[in-house]
Amino acid sequence: MKNYPRPQFVRSQWLDLNGEWDFSFDDVKAGVAERYMDDFPAAQKINVPFTYETGASGIGDEKFHPQIWYRRKVTLTPEAEGKQTILHFEGVDYKAACWVNGSFAGEHEGAYSRFSFDITSLLRQGAENEIVLKVEDSDSCLQPRGKQRWAGRNHDSFYVQTTGIWKSVWLEHVHETRLDMVKMTPDIDRQMIRFDFRFNGTTNKKDLRLETEITFKGEMVRKLSLSADRAWLTVETGMMSGINGPWLQNLWSPGNPNLFDVEFVLYEGEREIDRVGSYFGMRKISVRDGQILLNNIPLYQRLILDQGYWTESHLTPPSEEALIQDIEAIAEMGYNGLRKHMKIEDARFLYWCDVKGMLVWSEMAAAYEYNDEAVERFTKEWLEVVRQQYNHPCIITWVPFNESWGIQNIIHDVTQQNFTESIYHLTKSIDPNRPVITNDGWEHTVSDILTLHDYVERGEDLYERYKDKDSVTGSSGTYNEWKFAFAHGYSYKGQPIIISEFGGIAFRSEHGWGYGNQVDNEEAFLERFSSITGAIKAIPFISGYCYTQITDVQHEVNGLLTEDRKPKVALEKIRAVNLG
């Protein structure tokens, strides 16, 4: 369904609340005391889901404001009669509190995970309803903030902050008894898939039945009928006989992104009370004998770093077409995947990566200081993200930490080392099937892949530095003249090795920066790009690479494309280097 915010859990009755909202700054934080939820001071309008810092919002004020307010008036359609109404927020940065018709509906902390409120009891059917949202943000480095600046100006690789609603807002009308969640785990070795269902409102109801229908390109694969008489239900199912083995013939991969459609229908007696559409991919990602395997076949990863910024809308995609354009440009340049850097991307983006066969590393936004508060905030939100993104076949790697950000003393601090180990094992407790990179770039503790960052300019220098595997993986010295591959007390255990940041070549500019010396023309760019990419590909024990980066981002001008997506170099020339 086009523009549906949650494409892996689709229902028919929903209302898009993106668009014009009333908006007010509240720098002195007077809104609660002055009861903005009852008497909103509609100072201006804002175009949701774009934040006030962006041009797309209609405001374009880049100054930091610690508290802001939104209001939207809604009249429910007749379809809402007799149903429960759920208010969904796909992403609000950073702490949100919501009122409906002046009554408190709920609150949520965390910029990157989605959340919802059941607002049924607060609504007036057939009349106008008022939704008010207060958002608090801060420049604290204890909250996960990714690449958002905190000093009031852009600096290094940090950009204009994101405050408020930055992903879709929508209403959904549902039956009180319904399917709340389904976790889908494919197993290609056993030729089956496991469904873990969670229901709402099923307690003490004995006449509930869940019908599950799996199809592939319109052809029936499997149909299940289950009693849904408890809140949690788990079922494993193999293929239907007579379909010529659709599981193994139609595995998901970059070259063949096959997806199975699945529909879940909940009945009370003979009455249908819930219908949810979804999909899954039959694929396996694993690590064995120093190699990364996709569907039990060695996978060489050609990734590109993707920070997901746009000129007029910053972290918010300007349109669904813009998401598709980026994915198609990445594929056209010969990359088979991307590392989504310091951002939890829109679910529509992951949907299109699923559809088009684009591999994704999902990476959490970092905090930049460490104490108990930072640990609590990070852990809560990261686990929400892992659960919410679990079903996407495109995601093949979890990356909770990058370059020791927020764990700046991990090289020798046992407490911070323990924190990363706990996040590794917590992630594995939810998802034991994907690799986890605990501290991308250097100073690894426990990690399924050894990833290294290096912006050396010349291919011959890079080759000399990495050709000896023992010197790269040894814990006695630095691998690139200034960083250790492992934190103290940890050592190489035979993991696959990937150069997960390199390049960052910028054309000459007076208004931005890249890594190393800037180049003057396409010829100089291609010579350097070919040199360093070729050097990595020539080292047999390296399992892949991630080039920095797909687009310019504000003052960082080392993209293969400009921030408005104009190629700096012909895409086919980049492709020739990657695939040569």
From TrEMBL:
Domain Glycoside hydrolase family 2 catalytic: 286-576
Pfam families in UniProt: Glyco_hydro_2, Glyco_hydro_2_C, Glyco_hydro_2_N
PANTHER family: BETA-GALACTOSIDASE, HYDROLASE
Domain Glycosyl hydrolases family 2 sugar binding: 16-171
Assigned protein family: Belongs to the glycosyl hydrolase 2 family.
InterPro entries per the UniProt record, alphabetical: Beta-gal/glucu_dom_sf, Galactose-bd-like_sf, GH, GH2_Domain-Containing, Glyco_hydro_2_cat, Glyco_hydro_2_N, Ig-like_fold, Ig-like_GH2
Keywords, ordered alphabetically: Glycosidase, Hydrolase
GO function terms (MF aspect): hydrolase activity, hydrolyzing O-glycosyl compounds
Native source species: Paenibacillus graminis
Name recorded for this polypeptide: Glycoside hydrolase family 2
Alphabetized Gene3D superfamilies for the sequence: Galactose-binding domain-like, Glycosidases, Immunoglobulins
One of the GO biological process terms: carbohydrate metabolic process
All copies of domain Glycoside hydrolase family 2 immunoglobulin-like beta-sandwich, residue ranges: 177-283
